Amino acid sequence: MDYLKKQSNHIKIVKFYLIAFIFSWVIWCVGIFSDIKNPYLIISIGGLGPVVALLVYYVNFYQKDKRLDYIKRLLKYKQIPIYIWLFTLFFPFIIILVSILLDKGLHFSLRIDETFIQKGWIYPIFLVVFGPIPEEMAWRGIAFHELIKKGYIKTQLIVALLWAIWHLPLFFIENSYQANLGIFTFGFWMFFINVISISFLTGWIYVKSNKSILLVIIFHYLINLTGEMFDLLRNEQMIQMILMLFISILVLSFPSRNKGDKNVYKRS
User: Fold this and answer.
1) pTM for the model
2) For 10-56, what is each residue's pLDDT tens digit?
3) Left (φ > 0), alpha (ψ -120 to 50) or beta: where does 38 sit?
4) Which H helix or E strand runs over 65?
5) What does the DSSP assignment read for 132-172?
6) What is the pLDDT of residues 144-178, one digit of tens each?
7) What is the distance between the alpha carbons of residues 27 and 21, in angstroms, rounded to a whole number?
8) Which residues contact 8 (CB under 8 A, 6 or more apart)?
9) Which of 244, 3, 20, 241 is closest to 141 using CA atoms?
């Protein structure tokens, strides 16, 4: 019976990922084969694939108690260690400052991207609505939360790899950020390394925050916001990538379980 239950949970997560990938990739394929000058609308619509998968999973596989638990996790801001709050709020800014400092020394300068300013005040709102909210509600709120029962490292690797692969069609949509990086270029590999590193860090925050979806949404948003806001030179980008990868491997290798973590690892 226990074996059948495990198989059932495994199949549920497979279905969850299939729905997310199929919805996103079908929409993005329309963008690939259409002559669209501004691809961001279709990219944003395709980016809602995780939410579609989330809703299907929530309605079909969660009973009342688990639905309430999900809502609590989504809105959770209490009983979170202060150092996790500090890491979430300041790490995205500090790693950029450190990267510039290591490259330029005391002569460093923090440059605001002019394109970011030109996009206006609505763009920071767009960044949170399309990206952090739909993705973290699904990737960490459902996939990571359910898979963690199989082990921390295994879950981190699965979620990170699938999250990276999910982005692949974006490299073939003309005028998208990813397409401008090119295929198999330095920027291409840097993008995927950064996605995997961010995924490790976000999964760690989810565990250490006692399952707060809200906190990982905030972290994801600040990572995206700082990435858009500040203009980093190539050397600075490389340093940032190396630092983030190093730190993410540390949290992957040493998932210390404190008193607050036990409920995350407990089987349900």
Assistant:
1) 0.90
2) 899 999 999 999 999 999 999 999 887 788 899 999 999 999 999 99
3) beta
4) helix 64-75
5) HHHHHHHIIIIIIHHHGGG-HHHHHHHHHHHHHHHTGGGGG
6) 999 998 899 999 999 999 999 999 999 999 989 89
7) 10
8) none
9) 20
